[in-house]
Write a structure and sequence with these properties.
Blueprint: H1 3-16, H2 22-41, H3 51-63, H4 68-87, H5 114-121, H6 129-144, H7 148-152, E1 159-160, E2 165-169, E3 175-179, H8 182-203, H9 222-235, H10 244-257, H11 262-269, H12 274-277, H13 279-295
Antiparallel strand pairs: 1-2, 2-3
Helix pairs in contact: 1-2, 6-8, 6-10, 10-13
Length: 299
């Protein structure tokens, strides 16, 4: 079987059998498209790809100044691909089996200080429908720690104001229930009463079930949310460029700073492995060190 045909079969396999998210599938597709271009230049077939070819391919990524995390993800994609090809008996041996993963420098996630969060939340104009939507959206992001992909998929029916929680679908189509704070619920309620109906009238539609919608009456996109948050971040004069994930990092960091246990934070964030959540304990430790150095007379 040709390389391109095997790639297509592999992508179909991971989509149907593993139920991976759209973002993960897109990453697999991009990674394998890069490798296919490399293989064509070397006139390699699926059967002739060797370990040295993979080493050269990864070395080329480093020469492009890509981060070690990106190269590591590319290697994971190749491992999964060749493992699939071997399981299908398309190749006799896996050329990626003895390749070492690059060492990844651990970057502590960026987050906002509490006063910066308060300043950010004050930016949207609550006198307009769009302002009500944006304030409610910011409140929900900070109150729940949702991923942007989870936020844009929220429907009105997913929010339970009486219980004080929201239902969302995370990575791998896993459902979880996340608590929502009173301030966020209050702002969402006001948006549902005053802001969302106005947006529906402007869009001349009443069929959308999306909780947060755009001017056309359809659900917001990832890029749309990114642009909205970026603009409010600049308006608030934040020290760093604001991204949706930064509010997620702030949510987790502030919980741990105030004594929340790691397991509870893991469940709220929807992390499959608690080691992913543990990065936030390092953020808190670093914050404590900064406070100590700034205030202790003998620091």
């Amino acid at each position: 079987m040709e390389l391109s045909a095997t790639i297509s079969s592999f992508l179909t396999h991971v989509k149907v059998e593993k139920g991976l998210s759209i973002n993960t599938l897109s990453a697999y597709q991009r990674d394998l498209a890069k490798f296919e271009v490399f293989a064509k230049k070397r006139k390699l077939s699926l059967e002739t790809v060797g370990r040295d070819d993979l080493v050269d391919f990864l070395a080329g990524l480093y020469r492009q100044k890509l981060e070690s995390r990106t190269v590591a993800r590319q290697l994971v994609t190749l491992r999964n691909f060749f493992r699939f090809a071997q399981a299908q008996e398309l190749i006799s041996s896996d050329p990626s089996i003895n390749l070492e993963s690059p060492k990844i420098r651990r970057h502590l996630p960026g987050y906002l200080r509490l006063e910066e969060v308060e300043k950010l939340l004050d930016q949207p104009d609550p006198k307009t429908a769009m302002g009500l939507r944006d304030r409610a959206m910011l409140e929900v992001l900070y109150s729940t720690g949702l991923r942007v992909s989870e936020l844009i998929c929220l429907k009105v029916s997913d929010l339970n104001s009486k219980v004080g929680c929201v239902r969302c679908i995370g990575k791998g189509d896993k459902e979880r229930i996340v608590p929502v704070g009173k301030k966020a619920l209050g702002m969402v309620d006001k948006y549902l009463r005053e802001g969302r109906p106005a947006l529906l009238r402007q869009a001349k539609t009443s069929s959308s079930s999306a909780l947060f919608m755009n001017r056309r009456g359809t659900g917001l996109s990832r890029v749309g949310v990114w642009k909205i948050l970026s603009a409010y971040g600049r308006r608030a004069g934040l020290r760093v460029a604001l991204t949706p994930h930064m509010l997620r990092h702030s949510f987790a960091t502030h919980l741990l700073e105030r004594g929340a246990d790691l397991r509870s934070v893991q469940l709220m964030l929807g992390h499959a492995d608690i080691s992913t959540t543990q990065i936030y304990t390092h953020v808190v430790e670093e914050r404590l060190k900064q406070i100590y150095k700034a205030h202790h007379p003998r620091a």
